[in-house]
Automatic annotation (TrEMBL):
It is found in: Nucleus. This is B3 DNA binding domain containing protein. Residues 1-74 form the TF-B3 domain. One of its GO terms (cellular component) is nucleus. GO terms for molecular function: DNA binding. Keywords: DNA-binding, Nucleus, Transcription, Transcription regulation.
Amino acid sequence: MKNQDDVVLCVPSVGLWFVKIKIRSPRFKTCAATILKGWREFANDNNLEVGDVCIFKLLDGDKTSFEVSIVRFAEYEYRHWSQCPLTSIEDVPFESENPFFKVLMQPTYVGPQAQHIVTF
């Protein structure tokens, strides 16, 4: 992936979103990625709310694309208080052979000026 690239976000049975992402060089063994264009539409179309968790799974193919799974805060909160509590975002159940990362939605990610920043 280049420093700036077009990326496809796919939510199964919902749709595709074409976004532009910028990767900043690693600091402290992490990278930061910002979705420059298309995030607001993605967040609005998927009714993302603060507390929701998006899991981005890298897909194989010619074009950089991610399958996005969304765990709703209401579901997460229910599990948190049930007999199988989740203690952190890392506990949100998800397994994949492909690389993936999880992002907990913050107010700045889903508000009117939404711009998404990911650290991985």
